Amino acid sequence: MLKIAVQKSGRLLEESLSILRECGIYVPFGDGRLKTEASGFPLEIYFLRNSDIPSYLRDGVVDLAILGTNMLAEYGEGISSILPLGFSRCRLSIATLRENNLQRIGDLNGKRIATSYPVSLDKYLKENNINAQIHEISGSVEIAPTIGLADAICDLVSSGSTLMKNGLSEMEVIFQSEAALIGRSNYSAESNAGLIEKLVFRLKSVLAANKSKYILLNAPNSSIPNICRILPGMKSPTILPLAQSGWSSLHSVIDEQQFWDIIEELKLAGAEGILIIPIEKMIL
Ligand code: PRP
Asked: Which of 8, 13, 116, 156 gets mutated to test ligand 1 (max ligand atoms within 8 A of its CB)?
């Protein structure tokens, strides 16, 4: 039985349970239990405080966690990312009050910076030869400059709305972060490595499917060579003859990011009746 930690509350929780569900792993949640067993996979789920998860993982209480990679930079000793999961994207940034004159990183020399990420901030300041005072606080960091506790803050930014509402503007991005499946750095040597690989396989299939679309289109046979050049499929498109002579149906898989560009090109090349269909799982 694998043990995985997820956030007890917070922005990663919902999508963590949702991606497990897409993997066929159903987690009972909402009855207040902090430890529960999933159906569909031998998995026990622990709902824990975000900042406690790295030490539970390191100490072997759990085998895996779904966490932001920002936590690795801060508490990453002995643990590492097994698979980026592509959700909860955000960045760790330094921000200052819009009304003050701190605009460049060099302006932070001799200033006080409030943060819940002292390790990451300290590393960044040292790399940039900035001598600033780090003031560690555990939450509501954005209020620190307004109440005179600090001259700047270093915190996670996602939409930027918390910064804006508190009169702050972003000065420097320290790093980008996203949710990831995290394990102990030596997990592949552990007895349950096989089970971990099975879970990773399911997650990879879901992630591949989420960023791809299945495309079907009809085209005159004379257009097929051109259309095949445009379609960046998994291998080459499937081509099936239509009842109407001289026409075929082409099927392929395309990247979600590219499909609007490609559809324009396909239409110009003679494609008709284009259908774009979501893919539930994709086994690579
Ligand atoms: C994070 C972060 C910021 C906010 C930024 O807090 O600490 O306060 O999100 O998001 P935005 O750019 O979309 O406004 P979160 O709500 O995750 O909770 P926390 O205070 O426990 O960190």
From this structure: 156
